[in-house]
Specification:
60% helix, mainly alpha, disordered N terminus
C-alpha cells in the first residue's frame, strides 16, 4: 500500500472540522429541496465554502474516517447521527466508503460537486445501475481522496486501497475490470443489440453544437415560466373583449396574488401589480367593476397582516440584500399599509431595507394625510411614537390637530416627541399646543416645551413663562430647567424683561432677602442674551457680587452680549 503523507494538525481543533461537517449536512438538505438557481441553494454552497478557511489556517488537509453513524477525525467524533435515514455517514458507509481526505482548495468547486453527487446517490432507486463509487468515478477530483472497500473481492487482509481522482478497488481499475468481464463473457447471439454499438452516437455532436445545447438548457432552467404565463393572461385580458373570459382571468389573479407573496416570489407579484396598473390605464372599455377588482390587488397587498408578513420575510432574508422586485412591490403600497410600516421600522435589522421603507413611509405620509390623522388619534397604536416623530421630520402641518390629541397621552415619551415635532412645525396652532405643555407634569416635556417656545420667540407663551420665572416654582427645579425658563423668558419678552430680571439680580426689597445664587446667575445669563445697553449696564453693576457663581455668570453674560 502506498505510504500516506503525514497530516499536520498542529493548532487545529475539532470544532472547525465539526462546523464544516454540519454545514455540509445542511447543504445536502438544500440540494434535495431546491434547484441550483435558487438563492437558498446558492447560500448553502457559500456557507460550506466559508467554513473551510478556519481549517486551512492550520492544516493543508484533513482525513475523515467514515463509520456507520459517525465521522472520526484524529480519533475524535466530529459528527454523529444515529438515525441512518438522515445520516450522511451511513449514505457513504453503505456504498463502501471508509475514509475521505479533503485538501486546501477543495471548497472552490469540488466540494459542492461532491455534495451534489452524494445527494444524487442517496436517492437512486434500488435497481439503478449506478452507485456512489461509479458516480464519483465519472469525475476527476484533484483535492479529494477516497478509500473504498470491495464487497465482492478481497485478499483477506482488510486493506483499503486509496483513491485520488479515480476510484480503485483492490488495485484493479474500473477500466481493467470492464475489459476482463468482456473477455470472459460468453458469445452473444447475433440477433441481440449491444449498447456499446449505439453509445457512440452521443459523440456525433461537435464542440460548437454541444456548447449551443448547454446554453439553451441553461436558459431554459433560468427562464421565468411563471412570468411568461402571467404575461399570457394579461395579453388575453387586453385582446379578448369577452367579459366572462376577463372575469375568470381576474379571479385567477386574485387567488394567485396572495400565494405569490407567501412564496416570496416578488418578481411575479411585481409583474401582477405592474401589468394590472397598465391594463387600467390602457383599456378604456374595461368595465368599472373589473377595474376595481384589479385595483383591489394593491388594496390586498396593503392589508396590515400581509404587510407584516411581507416585512418579516424580507428582514429575515436581509443578508441577501433588498430584492429589486420586492422593492417594486413595496412601492405600490397604499395608505392602509402606513401603520404597520411605521410599527416595523424600529425593529428592522437590515439597514438597506430600513432606508427603502423610510422612503415608502414618507411618500405614504404625504399622500394620505387622513391616515396620518387617524393613527395619531389611536393611543394604543404601536406606530404612534414613530408617526409623531415623522410629522415633525416631514413638516406635516396638517397633522397639528392629531398631534394636539397625542399631547393627552399618558406616556411621557409620546408627549415629549409630540412637543418636539410641534416645535419643528412652528405654526401658530402648533405653538399654542406647545404653550400648554409648559405646565406638563414631566420635567423633560416641560423643558422641550419651554425651549421650543423660546426658540420660536412665541409671544403667546409669555404669560406662562413669566409666571414661572417670577414665581416660586423654579426654586425646587434643577439648574437645567431654571436656565431653560430664564433663557426662554429673555427670548420672548426681549427688552421688557430687563426690569424684572434686574430685580432678581440686584435689588433687595424690605423684609425680603435676595434670590438664591443659582436664580440670580440664571437672571444674569438671561440679561446677556437680551443684548441691549440697559441690560449690559445692569450686568456691570453685578461684577463685584459676593457670590462666585453670580460673578461667573455675569462675566460670561457680558462676553456673550459683546458678540
Amino acid at each position: 500500500m502506498t505510504a500516506q503523507p503525514q497530516v499536520q494538525t498542529t493548532g487545529l481543533q475539532a470544532a472547525p472540522v465539526g462546523e464544516l461537517i454540519s454545514v455540509m449536512v445542511k447543504a445536502l438538505r438544500a440540494f434535495q429541496m431546491y434547484l441550483p438557481n435558487n438563492p437558498i441553494y446558492q447560500r448553502a454552497i457559500q456557507n460550506v465554502q466559508a467554513a473551510c478557511p478556519a481549517i486551512w489556517a492550520s492544516v493543508e488537509e484533513i482525513e475523515l474516517r467514515v463509520l456507520e453513524t459517525e465521522f472520526m477525525w484524529e480519533d475524535q467524533v466530529v459528527y454523529r447521527q444515529s438515525n441512518k435515514n438522515e445520516s450522511l455517514t451511513w449514505s457513504l458507509f453503505k456504498d463502501g466508503m471508509r475514509a475521505i481526505t479533503l485538501r486546501r482548495g477543495v471548497e472552490a468547486s469540488e466540494l459542492p460537486l461532491l455534495l451534489s453527487i452524494i445527494n444524487q446517490a442517496r436517492f437512486l432507486p434500488p435497481d439503478a445501475g449506478d452507485d456512489l463509487p461509479t458516480l464519483l468515478w465519472a469525475h476527476e477530483f484533484e483535492y479529494i481522496q477516497f478509500r473504498f472497500i470491495d464487497f465482492f473481492v478481497g485478499d483477506g487482509s482488510g486493506a483499503v486501497p486509496q483513491v485520488s481522482g479515480e476510484i480503485k478497488q483492490d488495485g484493479v481499475s474500473p477500466a481493467a475490470r470492464k475489459a476482463q468481464v468482456v473477455e470472459e463473457a460468453p458469445p452473444r447471439a447475433k440477433s441481440l443489440i449491444d449498447i456499446e454499438e449505439v453509445d457512440s452516437t452521443l459523440y456525433f455532436l461537435d464542440d460548437a453544437e454541444i456548447s449551443y445545447l448547454a446554453r439553451e438548457v441553461e436558459e431554459e432552467y433560468q427562464r421565468d415560466v411563471r412570468g411568461s404565463a402571467l404575461n399570457i393572461l394579461f395579453d388575453l385580458v387586453e385582446v379578448n373583449t369577452n367579459n366572462a373570459v376577463r372575469q375568470e382571468i381576474i379571479r385567477i389573479l386574485e387567488r394567485l396574488f396572495p400565494n405569490l407573496l407567501n412564496a416570496q416570489d416578488f418578481r411575479s407579484a411585481a409583474t401582477v401589480l405592474r401589468e394590472s396598473k397598465l391594463l387600467r390605464e390602457k383599456l378604456g372599455n374595461l368595465p368599472p367593476e373589473q377595474s376595481e377588482r384589479l385595483s383591489g390587488l394593491v388594496a390586498k397587498l396593503s392589508e396590515p397582516a400581509i404587510v407584516g408578513q411581507l416585512l418579516q420575510s424580507l428582514d429575515e432574508a436581509s443578508h441577501l440584500g433588498v430584492d429589486a422586485h420586492a422593492a417594486e412591490v413595496l412601492r405600490e403600497l397604499t395608505g392602509t399599509a402606513l401603520e404597520p410600516l411605521v410599527s416595523w421600522l424600529p425593529n428592522l435589522s437590515s439597514e438597506p431595507l430600513r432606508k427603502m421603507l423610510e422612503q415608502v413611509v414618507d411618500r405614504l405620509a404625504h399622500t394620505y394625510p387622513n391616515e396620518v390623522q387617524r393613527i395619531l388619534k389611536l393611543p394604543e397604536s404601536a406606530a404612534l411614537l414613530g408617526m409623531v416623530e415623522m410629522c415633525g421630520r416631514l413638516g406635516l402641518h396638517q397633522a397639528v390637530p392629531g398631534l394636539a390629541e397625542a399631547m393627552a397621552h399618558t406616556d411621557p415619551a409620546i408627549r415629549l416627541a409630540t412637543v418636539q415635532s410641534l416645535g419643528l412645525l412652528g405654526t401658530p396652532g402648533a405653538l399654542t399646543v406647545v404653550d400648554k405643555a409648559i405646565d406638563d407634569t414631566d420635567r423633560n416635556v416641560r423643558l422641550a416645551a419651554v425651549r421650543a417656545a423660546g426658540t420660536r420667540g412665541y409671544k403667546g407663551a409669555l404669560r406662562r413663562v413669566e409666571a414661572v420665572v417670577l414665581g416660586k416654582t423654579l426654586k425646587d427645579a434643577d439648574l437645567t430647567e431654571k436656565m431653560a425658563f430664564f433663557e426662554a423668558y429673555s427670548a420672548i419678552a426681549g427688552v421688557s424683561a430687563v426690569k424684572p430680571l434686574t430685580a432678581i439680580l440686584l435689588e433687595r426689597k424690605m423684609f425680603r432677602m435676595k434670590e438664591p445664587p443659582e436664580i440670580r446667575a440664571c437672571a444674569a445669563m438671561a440679561l446677556g442674551r437680551i443684548k441691549a445697553p440697559e441690560a449690559r449696564d445692569v450686568l456691570q453693576q453685578a461684577l463685584e457680587d459676593k457670590e462666585l457663581v453670580v460673578r461667573n455668570a455675569v462675566n460670561r453674560a457680558l462676553r456673550e452680549a459683546a458678540r
